[in-house]
Design brief:
Layout (H helix, E strand, L loop, with lengths): L3 H10 L24 E5 L5 H9 L4 E6 L2 H14 L5 E5 L2 H8 L5 E7 L18 H8 L1 E11 L2 H14 L3 E8 L10 H8 L4 E7 L2
Parallel strand pairs: 1-2, 1-4, 2-3, 4-5
Antiparallel strand pairs: 5-7, 6-7
Helix pairs in contact: 1-5
Bound molecules: S-adenosylmethionine (SAM).
The site of S-adenosylmethionine has 20 residues, from strand 2, helix 4 and helix 7.
Length: 210
């Protein structure tokens, strides 16, 4: 890897918001956000975490983004059946487009990237969230002191993410939780539950923007 400071500025410079297409979904960033903290989950899949998180945190607002129609459809049907918690806004959108064009700077308190696609092949490395030029832009949407949580069942992925979060993005470590099969009852997401059931170890990292 190049020198980390150079890596950071090169990565930041290469993100060009004006070149990102507009999101197809018309949902705007919610109003009245000064009244409560706003959190964002990217790639929420079938929505298990957003639903339980919003129920447990009624004083906050969680925006949950998922881009695939099939997974978002399962999420929407569950919300229709059980009712949408007051503090949840579910949006079917590509996160890069939606965040780039809809999220004002310094508005998010917590960001969740739970079991993101790992893109394991060397040629795909720059598609991992923490290595994307977009990630620097995403961090500018966090308030000072805001946190980012990344979880994965792949040790190489969380090791690499830790390096980038600390050395390239200069975030401060807050928590590193290891989950095993014994934790399956408190699994937060569909994928977390699947991996823990199989006996895989999952790691959840939380870092803070200084
Ligand atoms: C491996 S799944 C994990 C889903 C969920 N977080 C869980 O743990 O059960 C990764 C999810 O991220 C979504 N995703 C990937 N890139 C995305 C993007 N740019 N915008 C929105 N969702 C995205 C995928 O469609 C997929 O549903």
């Amino acid at each position: 890897m190049k020198d980390d400071t150079l890596e950071r500025s090169a990565t930041l410079r290469s993100f060009k918001p004006a070149r990102i297409p507009l999101p197809r979904d018309p949902t705007p960033f919610p109003e009245g956000v000064a009244e409560r903290p706003v959190d964002l989950e990217i790639g929420c899949g079938v929505g298990a975490h957003p639903i339980s998180y919003a129920r447990a945190n009624p004083e906050r607002l969680l925006i949950a983004l998922e881009r695939t129609a099939t997974r978002f459809g399962v999420f929407e049907r569950r919300l229709a059946r059980e009712g949408t918690p007051k503090g949840l806004l579910a949006v079917r959108a590509d996160a890069i487009r939606w965040v780039t064009h809809r999220v004002p700077p310094a508005t998010l308190s917590r960001l969740f990237l739970l079991y993101p696609n790992p893109y394991p092949r060397p040629k795909q490395a720059n598609q991992r969230w923490h290595r994307m030029p977009f990630f620097g832009y995403l961090l500018t949407r966090l308030v000072a002191g805001g946190t980012v949580t990344i979880a994965s069942n792949l040790a190489w992925y969380t090791d690499e993410a830790e390096h980038w979060l600390q050395e390239v993005w200069r975030l401060e470590p807050v928590a590193r939780d290891e989950l095993t099969k014994a934790d399956v009852e408190r699994a937060r997401t569909h994928f977390e539950s699947k991996y823990l059931e199989r006996g895989q170890r999952c790691v959840s990292l939380t870092y803070r923007r200084c």
